[in-house]
Amino acid sequence: MKILMVCLGNICRSPLAEGIMKQKAAENGLEWTVDSAGTGAWHAGELPDRRSIATARKKGVDISDQRARQFQIADFERFDKIFVMDTQNMSDVLRLATSEAQRGKVELMLDQIHPGLRRSVPDPYYDDNGFEEVFDMLDQACSAFVSRYL
Ligand code: 4NP
To answer: Would the pTM of this model clear 0.85, i.e. be above it?
Structure first.
């Protein structure tokens, strides 16, 4: 299974989702490829936000080797599953899709724990206190997804 996590900047939410999913897959002996990307290019090449790195580290997840990159149309073919963090990411990614097969790969991350409710992972960029909450919702969503393959 090849999974891509997508948010806006690829420095706050999707790096956490990538790190959490990688760790859960490894812990459960699943040989998955997990990557992340942003719909925007502003932060390409940068490390994850220091608050995401710190929050992940506190929870035992190391995301300090990640670098931000922009989502590319080729990602539709490189990945089996594209988890988007919010409904804006969803529209931005779907706009680039050229087939039903590609559209079918795109899913809201929180649909794993709140099916059909179209909930978004809140953008913590402007909220110093939001990172822990974001980590916890991503942790639950990734656990729910992984449990379907155990
Ligand atoms: P992310 O958060 O999409 O979770 O990585 C953001 C990071 C940067 C910006 C917005 C959201 N920004 O506007 O620079």
So the answer is: yes
